[in-house]
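Hi everyone,

Forwarding the result from last night's run.
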Amino acid sequence: MHTIAPPTVASRVHALRRHLPSLAMSSGGRGLQAVVVALALVTAGCDRATTPPDDDDATAERIISLNGAVTEILYALGAQGDLVGADVSSVWPPEALALPRVGYYRSLSAEGLLSLEPTLLIGESEAGPPQVIGQVRQAGVRTLLFDAEFTATAPADKVRVIGAAVGLADEAATLATRIQDEMNSAIADAEAARTRAGVEPARALFIYARGPGNLLVSGTETAADAVLRLASARNAIDAWSGFRPLNPEALVGAEPDVILIPERGLESIGGIDGVLRLPGVAATPAGRARRVIAVDDLQLLGFGPRQPVAIRTVAEQLYGDGAASGAATGDGPTGASGSARDQMNGSGQMNGSGQTNGGGQTNPGDRAHAGTAANGGEAPGSAARRSAGEAHGAGEAVGRP
């Protein structure tokens, strides 16, 4: 009588390696969850920590991260020793800054990537150009590229995908559960804080800036739009999706109560005073009240392990300290403690002094939506995203349009 032995770690890893080249995620809102299932089927039962590897598995993985949140997740999983390079968005944790840089994730070079002798590339599906990704694959490098998703479950799903791909599914499951619990708590606390304040969802305008000459405004279906919704706010721009160049008439018509901007963008235009000098801003309720919130770029837009902290920070600035009541502790994936504002290392500016307008939120009332298309409606989101990408410097963080 013959028995069938269970698959070894080696066979499962080799199966994973055969399947990874095809795991570029499809659109439709289920990409991350779909790849979690696919990778789980390949790696089920694999325990790299306790099962002796075969000889041909002894060589360590050599990973290049093409996304700041991916890098952050790899560090959180303890897989940073496998990293041999990263794109310019990989700015957290600080140790990641020492990694060799492969450039901006949409403007990669096959020669630059292959010079680091990677065995695996991990990033989002917009990494490219496509011909470069194709050249790297032809060279035998496995790639895991997935669609960016901006949902309440996206950070945890992303952790599971990456953990399965690098043989740390168990560690990823633990981390993902913790992050999901923190996400659920942050979202609930934001809604509760707004309810206690007795106000309607704040109308917020997100500005993406890289200097006064590179200003974009977020419509719907972006990471910024998702953060606002998760923080119990609403996007003041709902007449288009994606990013478009800032248009003074559209901005004034949106009548935002508050402006949300990444920290690096705020610095690039001269701080809060620089925001108020932008065309049209001074004529808005946000401009008149100097209501500007600045949050760390990667934390705000990366949808990685620290996303719950970003949601709390935004909600705390909008509706008061009650939104930070359940902030992550030192045991969480962020390794932070205290209020959400404390965790931001000085971010979350409001009124130039970190103070809200008397602690109360102006009821936005029934305002007309911004229906004026930026630049006459001629600038599609993809073109705006490209123009923004071409202007990014070496310190660029993930989540850019």
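The beta strands are 63-65, 83-86, 120-124, 142-146, 203-209, 215-218, 234-235, 243-245, 258-262, 292-295.

Cheers,
N.
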